[in-house]
## 1
Amino acid sequence: MSLFDLATRAVRVLPAETAHRFTIDALKTGLAKPEFGLEDPRLAVRLKRSGLLLPNPIGLAAGFDKNAEVAAQMLGFGFGFVECGTVTPRPQAGNPRPRLFRLSEDRAVINRMGFNNDGIGYFVRRLSAIPRALGVVGANVGANKDSEDRIADYVAGVKAVWPHSSYVTINVSSPNTPGLRGLQDRGALDELLGRVGGAAREMAAVVKNRPVFLKVAPDLDDRAIADIADVALAQDWLSGLIVSNTTIERPESLASRHKAETGGLSGAPLMEKSTRVLADFHALIGDRLDLIGAGGIASAQDVVAKLRAGAQAVQLYSALVFHGPMLVQRIKSDLLTIMLAEGIDTPRAFRPS
Ligand SMILES: Cc1cc2nc3c(=O)[nH]c(=O)nc-3n(C[C@H](O)[C@H](O)[C@H](O)COP(=O)(O)O)c2cc1C
């Protein structure tokens, strides 16, 4: 067993948040060195609306690298893109600990971190130091908990990260900032996207166009999905949706002792629901917006399920907690095997036509 494997196993016996901090520090110091391999060109995808070119469709979801500390290293593990954040304009401590729970029996995680981060100034300094050529690095922006004008926080965030990121995500779907998800309601979303759209146009005039994504929750009924699709489609500057964030629902099937903790549930029990919501959005939107699927992915089969539901690319986070970062290489090689078995030469071919 390599030192790296040993460290990956040791991390799993630490309390969840300590393990996460240890992992980030190990990556920063170079203790946990990714193995760089050649990317198979058959995995490359270009997102239709945004034009983003990804060496493979598997991304690291937001929340792992909140402060843009280890994006380069995570690209090195083989992710096709990495999303840093969520970052808020001012630094924020987040909720009291413990606030991160492993539900091992359920292959799930509950978190109520509450946008703990070092603030946009620090974030932008780190982000701007990442060489562009390394790969696609997105920036996920949010609002401070005590902000008087939350939309102004999004506008400030978008403007600050714009010159330094490959794309920007507007996160209105964290369950851990009270009231934040209310921004998904039709009227509030209209106002939010109106003001962020103004900032996007302003920035595009001076820097360069950046794809902007809106990240939504999985806890949406048909009416809410239709409203979000409608409002999103009306924005000519918006590239797509990321579906989805964590859920506040607790499926009956959960077995872990942590299942009643407050917060957002992610990992395996989120797979079915988030994929259903993704398919619902795809039914309304088709290819008019890029859809990125997230929620419960732990295998190449899961990736294929998201692509079949209409995703052009996917993201994962929770599965890393149980399988370690080498999971990405495994998923990519299994995906190629499935592609070969089905006689197709691009992940796009899984998508509904
Ligand atoms: C510990 C933790 C922290 C997260 N923090 C964020 C965040 O800051 N911003 C965000 O948009 N999503 C955040 N997420 C949600 C993930 O990006 C992802 O949408 C969700 O976990 C579903 O994917 P998964 O099942 O592969 O984890 C977080 C998830 C976890 C587990």
Note: Residues 61-63, 66, 85-86, 100, 109, 111, 113, 140, 171, 174, 215, 245-246, 266-267, 270, 294-297, 316-319 surround flavin mononucleotide (CB under 6 Å).
## 2
Amino acid sequence: MDLPPLAAVLLLLAIAFVLYFVFATFVFGAGYQPAPRRVVERMLEGGAVGPSDRVYDLGAGTGAIVFRAARERKATVVAVEVEPIRVAILRLRRAFGGPRERVEVRWGNMFDLDFRPATVVMAFLWPGAMARLRPMFESQLSHGARVVSHWHPVPGWTPDEFDAETRVYVYRWQGSPSAPTAPG
Ligand SMILES: C[S@@+](CC[C@H](N)C(=O)[O-])C[C@H]1O[C@@H](n2cnc3c(N)ncnc32)[C@H](O)[C@@H]1O
């Protein structure tokens, strides 16, 4: 089948955009894939997310976890995302759907974060990113903070809960900042 030149160019641009949108951020720690609804539900449940929590979503994507944590669980959420188009989508969702007072969108690299204020950390990332985050968690998380990860575990940690159906790992950190004690 012969495509007219303009259609061929548009098709190539569309393919290039999809490849960029999904795969380009692998070099930072993960590509793009939104967590399915039932996985988000399990992650919120596992993290026991509630109104007194400050949730950090590491690589917030387009907000699958962020807006449910803020709207349904009334948590305060820090959405950290490195890819600018997804950051724009997060900001639009925050502006038009809210809740603005409980969602903060940060354009940046999660490896530059300070996790001390977090009570819950959410992650749906590649194994290399989880390995790089582990020492940051151990030196910065406060006692009682929960780390909830979909698909990949925190290497070397023993989960307090693991749901095989949704592949959600839940860890309850028992150490304190700058005094690492691996749980489990
Ligand atoms: C698999 S998606 C998960 C999106 C969302 N958390 C969810 O569960 O629906 C991973 C996201 O992490 C982002 N990401 C990857 N490396 C990052 C980094 N170093 N800092 C911030 N965001 C990053 C990607 O751009 C992508 O949007």
Note: Helices lie at 5-23, 37-46, 66-71, 84-97, 127-140.
